[in-house]
UniProtKB/TrEMBL annotation:
InterPro entries on file: FAD/NAD-bd_sf, FAD/NAD-binding_dom, FAD/NAD-linked_Rdtase_dimer_sf, Pyr_nuc-diS_OxRdtase, Pyr_nucl-diS_OxRdtase_dimer
Entry cofactors: FAD
Family to which the UniProt record says this protein belongs: Belongs to the class-I pyridine nucleotide-disulfide oxidoreductase family.
UniProt name for this protein: NAD(P)/FAD-dependent oxidoreductase
Matching Gene3D superfamilies: 3.30.390.30, FAD/NAD(P)-binding domain
Organism domain of life: Bacteria
């Protein structure tokens, strides 16, 4: 006998949680299905533990740079204790109870679609009017000869580790690589960062990569650009990585930040009418619809693999199911890498604007030369802001920022880009003195549009 629901949410990471919460609040009969932990990758192995362990390092820098305070040092044992509290000691029983209390049926196990509206979990057969796929993504480890001999970590081992390694090789110079290098270097680990691109954070404007390179080098990270791991082997206690140029690096662990793949394998999505893209992602329309009464949200769609996007798509899909559809818009969504200082961006890069045939004008501001806040905040102040405008339409189309709290003040640009606010209106804004926000005024004034 099968059990029937209005909606079955398959995967309870941040995307699934938001969709389920909205549907339950609207009185729907919802089944939530999770094979590991309710909260998903983000809550236990990604965003939450990484931001928790990066914070002491950031606070230490703040104390070192602020005039008139001294004495701050990081402490791994107490950082780890707070991290374990933040990841609930990998226990989601309170979450399961919470969903049950809201009226959901919580089903544990690996789900598979067996046809439109039909799901199998172990020996349970479930039918649902609507199914939401929110199964996320998993770390990709490139094929490297000899990898089975070495101690290889992904984000999972890195952000749940009890002990810190003495030496780490990190492969991949994008968000995971840069954040992990920042965290480990600030806790005294000797870090070598191997990146095959010619600059870090290669999807952002080149200036961002340059600035990050300088800050990481200053933090003691040995950065190897244009390098790729060709082979690996064990030498006693050491994990050895051999680069394509023949050079070798020894470490206690090798950490992979080499991208993620949508979790769609074996899910039976085609049986339910979904189409998959070339990287195995579920293809969706502007309402997060994958097929009739089948929806997909979050990393499994590969639209923008961020928690805030998974949550946004959760709202979009739930609203469509509840009969109040609104199209998703992906312009101007913030992208923050929580390094020290923070790196933030929103909208297009100069290269992307060129590819779209937009006549774009860019400007860059060194905050210390333009505004007061960096000086009241720290000695030897840090901070840059880049803006990109469409010269024809006189609106902001892109922004990047590297500096303290950049992940907070990038939202001004995000709103301006999403709402397509005319530069004239932006120039008439008044930011509190002295804040980092004032940088927008100064940058907009020097923007020649
Ligand atoms: C190290 C790291 C740090 C990150 N930091 C940030 C950050 O600071 N900010 C940010 O916005 N993003 C961050 N991200 C990205 C963020 O983790 C993801 O974008 C986010 O987790 C996606 O949410 P999701 O709901 O799509 O999937 P997930 O969080 O991956 O959750 C999917 C859930 O589905 C379950 N599942 C999968 N298959 C099945 C099945 N067949 N049956 C039942 N259940 C299933 C899984 O067990 C999992 O619980 C980070 C990523 C990494 C790796
Ligand atoms: N703060 C945040 O929002 C945050 C933090 C961490 C991760 N994330 C998200 O998690 C996802 C995964 O991040 P990521 O950094 O692992 O992936 P990514 O796909 O962004 O970058 C992977 C990098 O690894 C490099 N690479 C791949 N294979 C390599 C090899 N063999 N040798 C050397 N370099 C190699 C690639 O060139 C690329 O630069 C991303 O989508 C990211 O947005 C977000």
């Amino acid at each position: 006998m099968s059990e029937h629901f209005d909606v079955a949410v398959l995967g309870m990471g941040p995307g699934g949680e938001v969709a389920a919460g909205r549907l339950l609040a609207a009185g729907k009969n919802v089944a939530v299905i999770e094979r590991e932990l309710i909260g998903g990758e983000c809550a236990y192995w990604a965003c939450i533990p990484s931001k928790t362990v990066l914070r002491p390092a950031e606070a230490r820098t703040e104390v070192h740079k602020a005039a008139g305070v001294s004495g701050a040092e990081v402490d791994w044992a107490s950082t780890r204790e707070y991290r374990d509290y933040m990841i609930r000691d990998l226990d989601d029983s309170a979450q399961a109870e919470g969903y049950t209390a809201q009226g959901a049926t919580v089903i544990r196990g690996e789900a598979r679609l067996t046809g439109p509206g039909r799901i199998q979990v172990g020996d349970r057969e479930i039918t649902a009017e609507h199914i939401i796929i929110a199964t996320g993504s998993e770390a990709v480890i490139p094929p490297i000869e000899g990898i089975e001999e070495i101690t290889a970590w992904t984000n999972r081992e890195t952000y749940t580790t009890h002990d810190l390694p003495r030496r780490a090789v990190i492969i991949g110079g994008s968000a995971v690589g840069v954040e992990t290098a920042t965290f480990l270097a600030r806790f005294g680990v000797q870090v070598t960062l191997i990146h095959r691109g010619d600059r870090l954070l290669g999807r952002e404007d080149p200036r961002v990569g340059e600035l990050v390179h300088d800050y990481l080098t200053e933090a003691g990270v040995d950065i190897r650009l244009g390098a790729s791991a060709a082979k690996a082997h064990r030498n006693g206690a050491d994990s050895m990585v051999i680069l394509e140029d023949g050079s070798e690096v020894a470490a206690d662990v090798v950490i992979f930040g080499t991208g993620r793949a949508p979790r769609t394998q074996g899910l039976g999505l085609e049986a339910a009418g979904a189409r998959l893209g070339e990287h195995g992602e579920v293809l969706i329309d502007e309402h997060a619809r994958a097929a009739d009464n089948l929806w997909a949200i979050g990393d499994v769609t590969a639209v923008m693999p961020f928690t805030h996007v998974a949550k946004y798509q959760g709202r979009i899909a739930a609203d469509a199911i509840l009969g109040r559809p609104r199209p998703a818009g992906y312009e101007g969504i913030p992208r923050v890498v929580f390094a020290d200082p923070e790196i933030a961006a929103a909208g297009l890069t100069t290269e992307q604007a060129q590819q779209r045939g937009i006549r774009a004008i860019a400007t860059e501001l060194d905050l210390a030369q333009a505004i007061a806040r960096p000086w009241t905040y720290e000695q030897d102040p840090r901070g840059h802001l880049g803006l990109l405008a469409d010269a024809e339409r006189a609106v902001l189309i892109g922004a990047w920022a590297v500096g303290p709290q950049a992940g907070e003040w990038i939202h001004h640009a995000s709103l301006a880009i999403r709402a397509q606010l005319p530069l004239e209106i932006l120039r008439d804004q008044i930011a509190q003195f002295p804040t980092y926000h004032e940088a927008y005024q100064a940058a907009l004034e020097q923007l020649e549009v």
